[in-house]
Design goal:
- The chain has 211 residues and is an alpha/beta fold.
- The protein has two domains: 140 residues, Rossmann fold (3-Layer(aba) Sandwich); 63 residues, no CATH class.
- It is built from five helices and nine strands.
- β7, α5 and β8 form a beta-alpha-beta unit.
- The longest helix is centred in the C-terminal third of the chain and has 14 residues.
- The structure holds adenosine-5'-triphosphate.
- Adenosine-5'-triphosphate (ATP) binds next to α1.
- GO terms for molecular function: ATP binding; ATP hydrolysis activity.
- Keywords: ATP-binding, Nucleotide-binding, Transport.
Amino acid sequence: MGRGESSPLPSFEVNNLTLAYSSEYTVLKDLNLSINGSGIVHITAPNGYGKSTLIEAASGYLHPIYGKILINGVDASSPETRKYRRICRATPALHPNLSLVDHLVLSSQLTGVSKDEAIQRAIRFGLNIWFGKRTDALSTGTRKKLWYIMCTTGKFNVAFLDEPFNGVDKESVELMSEEICRWSSRSLIFISSHVIPQSLHIDMTLDLTKY
Ligand SMILES: Nc1ncnc2c1ncn2[C@@H]1O[C@H](COP(=O)(O)OP(=O)(O)OP(=O)(O)O)[C@@H](O)[C@H]1O
């Protein structure tokens, strides 16, 4: 890993990590990983193996049963990590009564940046024709693109994208690949996806079955 310069270096470290949602079933057991520097990491494993669960732990919401998960050396559950970590979950969580543009403004405010960046990106993705629409009236792919833009607004140097390309049209997948590739020169980008676009250069494959 390690293309381009970034300071401090992005990193993801997992020590003796055990994750579960209940005491009956352990999803991931005693996982150890250390990834330092920028680049694109493809998280792979069969359905139900725990890719999204790992991302949930990286978001800081799912607390480990045992072990540690660190983003840039800081515990994933620490509010400090929010400044430089982004999580894009597989299923968009949008407010049905707010418009598409309201969501862009909200995500910009939450990350403390001008709304112009998110709006310009949304225009590139062809979302401007839906700006005034309530999100409950948007198509699946449109919701997915809005969610991706919202979740990657502002400055960050570690991002986890869970199935970002599912349901998204080819042209938009290419735009996403371009953006991800650009970010990866200074950021560590994790992608959990069963299909990776051909244009996306993967620096490392993280096969959870091998850890
Ligand atoms: N919120 C939850 N509560 C309880 N169990 C859950 C929850 N989310 C996931 N699981 C369980 O945890 C296990 C791992 O699921 P996870 O979604 O992490 O797998 P995945 O590798 O991302 O799968 P896929 O490739 O299908 O997206 C599965 O057995 C799943 O049923």
